[in-house]
Design brief:
Elements lengths: L1 H32 L3 H10 L13 H54 L8 H14 L6 H11 L12 H4 L12 H7 L11 H16 L10
Amino acid sequence: MPRISTLRITRSHKIATAVLVAAGSVTAIAATGAPSEAQTTATRSSVSVEPVAAAGIPTAKDAAAKKAAQETAAKEAAAKKALAARKATAEKDAEEARSETQAANRSTERKAVTPKKFANNLDGWIRESLDIMKKKNIPGSYEGLHRNIMRESSGNPNAVNDWDINARNGIPSKGLLQVIQPTFDAYHVKGTPKKLTDPVANITAAANYAADRYGSIDNVDSAY
């Protein structure tokens, strides 16, 4: 009987021991798998935490980006405004220049269309001749022309000398300054009528001839 009792105790002890061993293994596994507080703290400290904005509240980074965008927009608006101002100024200057040019052209056209008017008498013929002579660089003055005209023809544009050597040779002197046909043809001033007795054509041809031979009609004081 005592041996049987011993056997039962031994079997109970084995079961209890097995339970304890199993429980110890679980505890060890749990202890091994769970990170220590130091490890958890180290892990947390190694992670970089970005600031997170609360709902509807911008961060300092958002505010800075918004300010930069506003400044850029303001600069672009100012640049566009300045460009528009420069363009408007350039257009205004161009329009003023066009207006001035058109006004100058109209003035030139009026001058070109409206010729000078001279009286149809001795004074007017002399003045018109002087105007043409000035343009053609033919020397002579009102006094020089008038003096010689009065001596040669007394101011008669149709005067004809029918008694001198030229008349006997068939080429009489004619007009205000008594010019013969060959001399008129040689010294005719372009732009005047090709008629020997035309007052202006006769005066300018005679003045042109006198300038070539005597330097100026002003230097002529007798038959020439």
